[in-house]
Amino acid sequence: MKTQHTSDTREHYSRHFEGADRTNVDFEQLENIDTNYHFEPQVLSDYIAFSIVYIVRFLTRYIFSGRFVHHGVFLEACASIPGLVGGVLHYIFGASSPEEEKRIAALLEESENERTHLMLWAEVIKPSILETILIFFATVVYFVLYCASYLVSRNFCHRVVGYMEEEAVWYYTDFLQAIDRGVPEVLDIQVPKLAINYYKLNADATLRQVVLCVRGDEAHHRNSNHTLSGCILK
Ligand SMILES: [Fe+2]
Ligand SMILES: [Fe+2]
Fold it and tell me: Cofactor(s) for this protein (predicted)?
C-alpha cells in the first residue's frame, strides 16, 4: 500500500473539528481500511524500531490479554506524546515554510486526536488513583525519552511511531473481532459519550462504530508517521 502524505492526514482530522459535518460517517470505508499494511524494515534503524515495538507488543498483549479497554488506555496513554513533541520541536527548530507549517499542524492534531482516544477509554474504565499515578509517570518518562530521541533522529522516532500505529490498528481489529464474536469481556463495555460527541455519531451509536472510528484514526497515524520517516525528513 502506498503511504499517504500528511496533507491527507489533515483532511482526515478536519472531520473532528467543532462544526465539521459528520452526518455522513462512512462506516463502510472504515470497515475496509487496509489493516494489514506493514512497512518492511529496510535499514538497520528500521529493524531496531520494529524490534522495540515487537517487544512492547508481546509484553502488552500478554499483560492485558482480553482486557481490551485497559489495553487501550495503556496504548493511548503515551500516544499523544510523539505528535506533541514533534510539533513543538519542529516549531522551535524548523524552517519557516508553508510545508513546515502543515507538518507542525498535522503533528499537533495527531496529539490532540490521541489524547481524545485516551480520554474516551478512560471514561469507560474510570482509572483508580494508582492507575492514574502510573499513567502520569509513564507519560513523563516517555516524554523525556521521546524528546531526547527526537533531537537525535527524527527519522527513527517517526519509524517507531509508525510501527506502534501498526500495532494499534491490529489491536483495534482484534477488539472489533471480539465484539463480533460476542466474547464476555466486551459485552458490558459502555459506549463513551465523549466518543459520540467527538466523532459526531448518533446518540444510539454502538461500541463497534466507536472502535471503527478510532481504528480509522490509527491507520492515518500509521501512514503519516511512516511517510514522515521515509519521505520528508531527510
Ligand atoms: Fe490512538
Ligand atoms: Fe495512533
Answer: Fe cation
Helix, strand, coil percentages for the chain (3-state, nearest 5): 75, 0, 25
| 139/142 Cα distance (integer angstroms) | 5
**pLDDT string in tens for the chain (234-residue length):** 344 444 455 555 555 555 555 556 788 889 999 999 999 999 999 999 999 999 999 999 898 888 899 999 988 998 999 999 999 999 998 777 888 888 898 899 999 999 999 999 999 998 889 888 988 998 999 999 999 999 999 999 999 999 999 999 999 999 999 999 999 888 889 999 999 999 889 999 999 999 999 999 999 999 999 999 876 554
Ligand 2 centroid distance, CA of 192 (Å): 18
CA distance linking residue 3 with residue 16, whole number of Å: 22
Q: How far, in Å, is the centroid of ligand 2 from the Cα of 185?
A: 23
User: Model confidence over 1-29: pLDDT tens digits?
Assistant: 344 444 455 555 555 555 555 556 788 88
Are 18 and 233 contacting, i.e. CB atoms less than 8 angstroms apart? no
Ligand nearest to the CA of 225: 2
Ligand nearest to the CA of 77: 1
Distance (angstroms) between ligand 2 centre and the Cα of 110 equals 7
**Among all ligands shown, which has an atom nearest to the Cα of 218?**
2
CATH number of 6-10+43-232: 1.20.1260.140
How many angstroms separate the alpha carbon of residue 217 from the centre of ligand 2?
6
Which residues have CB under 8 Å from 207's CB, separation 6+?
Answer: 179, 186, 189, 190, 191
CA of 216 to the centre of ligand 1 (A): 10
